[in-house]
Amino acid sequence: MKENSVTIPRWFDRHLHIRDGEMMKTVLPSTLNQRATGAIIMPNLADPISTIEKAKAYRDRITALLDGSDFVPCMTLYLTDHIDPEEVVRGFEEGVWRAVKLYMANQKGHGGTTGSAHGVKNLLGRYPVFEAMEKHKIPLLGHFEAVEEDVDEFDREIVSVDRDLKPILKSFPGLPVVFEHLTDGRAADFVAEVDHDIHATVTAHHLMINRNAMFWGGMNPSNYCKPVPKRETHRAKVRQYVTSGNRRFGAGTDSAPHDESVKSRCYGCAAGIFTSPTAVELYTMTFDEDNALEHLGPFLSENFLALYGMEVSSETMMIERGTLVVPQKVGGVQVFKGGAEIPWKLVG
Ligand code: DOR
Ligand code: ZN
């Protein structure tokens, strides 16, 4: 018999972009309405959150919009080639940030994704920072995609596993690592099997679409994000790890709002998919399709929360079978699967 409702602890978004200013005012309510206890806030603003002062000020701007909500904005540091290990540790010890986000850029200063141009160009040069992070157990949240121009777009993740991730794990066996928005089945095998304190976040959209979705019916920017969705075999492999209840995988939406004007331009379409308004329902639908609703709670609300200094919530939320029509837009931002019907509804 199929369940008609699922009750699980309130969840936590392990990877979220809420931007700043007017855009933040527009998109933050979507996550609050989804009953998240908090989120790992991505630091890739136009002026990246790369110092203690900037992180504190950004957290204050977020808090000012919370209006009594208990939502915990967990700040992250945008790692650059310049910050020294002492500031990284100090920001962590003072409770300003809970983790460090690694974006990489190539020698021309081109990053692989939105807001990554200020990212690390010299990974080896950051090893003293990783050493300090290992000592203080500061999690490294990695955007693992090779940024060299000659790497095939669809292989960027697995190439980065070999070039960047493996040497880091070997050099810092005690460094906690989160592999962000994992998309490649080979990377999933690696994360599942390697003997290391490593976990991975997985987005709702990468569980649902493969690369065809970017091209079906003409080029479709609403399904374009980084890492780009991969071929079907990879999507299926990643999804199998997730819905079979492997505890190394947890929900991180990577919900990444862009105004429609920058998503729909022909040249230089921005990467990012906005899923916040229905993230819980999208994940629920995915687990239900795989007859795996018993694993939904751990994935959304439990797995590796302690890594971020969060506890499993003692409050619950309920998702019921029923028809939810995904809104087309929130402000000027197109919503993933806008207009489609989802057979689940978060009701309280
Ligand atoms: O698609 C993406 N959009 N991937 C990222 O890594 C960044 C994000 C954004 O900030 O828009
Ligand atoms: Zn992201």
Automatic annotation (TrEMBL):
Entry annotation: catalytic residues: D254
GO terms, molecular function: dihydroorotase activity; zinc ion binding
Sequence positions that bind Zn(2+) 2: K101, H143, H181
Enzyme class: hydrolase
Position of the signal peptide: none
Cofactor(s) this protein requires: Zn(2+)
GO cellular component terms given for this protein: cytoplasm
UniProt-listed GO biological process terms: 'de novo' pyrimidine nucleobase biosynthetic process; 'de novo' UMP biosynthetic process
Entry superkingdom: Bacteria
Keywords tagged on the record: Hydrolase, Metal-binding, Pyrimidine biosynthesis, Zinc
Positions of Zn(2+) 1 binding: H15, H17, K101, D254
Reactions catalysed: (S)-dihydroorotate + H2O = N-carbamoyl-L-aspartate + H(+)
Entries under InterPro entries matching the protein: DHOdimr (IPR004721), Dihydroorotase_CS (IPR002195), Metal_Hydrolase (IPR032466)
Cofactor note: Binds 2 Zn(2+) ions per subunit.
Chain sites annotated for binding substrate: N44, H143, H258, A271
Protein role: Catalyzes the reversible cyclization of carbamoyl aspartate to dihydroorotate.
Subunit structure: Homodimer.
Protein's UniProt name: Dihydroorotase
Source organism of the structure: Candidatus Kaiserbacteria bacterium GW2011_GWA2_52_12
Gene designation per UniProt: pyrC
